[in-house]
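lol forgot to send this yesterday, sorry. struct tokens for the thing we talked abt
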């Protein structure tokens, strides 16, 4: 079965055969916590479908999202940097599936080197860029622009114009109060860009939503495209052995 995760899709030959025995396909259930903050990272998750949120818990009880993970990346990139814990909580925002591997297996790939390890590091770099861009976005841009960016990023990850989403949840992810989301969402609906009904968002006019978003969306998308493109080029150059692809 071909992998829907774009990093795993670069696996070739011996790399693919070596990791296959450690892989387990798992369901990602709504609000399921995959990685607890400051707890040992036992597994990493290559998202095949759905979306995982990376959030920071605030002392006063709120949370704010620092980034999201979809089928372009994996949850648990800290292990690639030799780190066994992370301050962020990783939980399922939109249900789906993932390929789960032991964290040590990925740490071993980093030590081993080769095309797959390089692909992992490139995507980790893109993920770090996304995190810093989202922090800047939350500081510098209006709620409506940030909402457009968030909706577009989520749409790219689920590969559908319709996905489940409540205003309360979106407010938490954007780090604002719910009335601010209601006002921004109402403006986008009146402009004919989205439709919101019973906990579901439908993107009606993608081009219009892109025009209304801040530049952060395109910056993040371009960084992941570059990382994945370079990973594919490296995989194409790697010798094929062990199994038929």
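and heres what i got for the seq, position by position
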């Amino acid at each position: 079965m071909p992998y829907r995760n774009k990093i795993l899709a670069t696996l070739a030959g011996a790399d693919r055969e070596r990791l296959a025995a450690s892989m387990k396909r798992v369901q990602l259930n709504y609000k399921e916590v995959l990685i607890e903050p400051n707890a040992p990272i036992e597994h990493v998750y290559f998202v095949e479908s759905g979306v995982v949120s990376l959030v920071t818990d605030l002392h006063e009880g709120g949370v704010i999202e620092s980034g999201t993970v979809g089928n372009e990346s994996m949850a648990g990139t800290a292990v690639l940097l030799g780190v066994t814990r992370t301050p962020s909580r990783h939980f399922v925002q939109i249900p789906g599936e993932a390929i789960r591997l032991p964290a040590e297996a990925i740490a071993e790939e980093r030590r081993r080197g080769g095309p797959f390890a390089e692909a992992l590091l490139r995507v980790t770099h893109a993920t770090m860029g996304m995190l810093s861009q989202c922090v800047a976005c939350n500081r510098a841009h209006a709620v409506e622009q940030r909402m457009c960016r968030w909706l577009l990023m989520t749409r790219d990850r689920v590969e559908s114009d319709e996905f489940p989403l409540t205003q309360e949840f979106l407010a938490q992810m954007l780090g604002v109060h719910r009335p601010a989301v209601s006002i921004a969402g109402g403006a986008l609906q009146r402009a004919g860009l989205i439709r919101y009904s019973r906990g579901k968002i439908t993107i009606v006019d993608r081009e219009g939503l892109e025009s209304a978003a801040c530049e952060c969306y395109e910056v993040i998308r371009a960084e992941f495209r570059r990382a994945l493109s370079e990973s594919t080029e490296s995989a194409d150059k790697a010798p094929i052995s062990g199994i038929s692809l």
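Strands lie at 24-28, 33-35, 43-57, 63-69, 74-75, 89-102, 162-164, 194-197, 200-203. anyway ping me if u want another try
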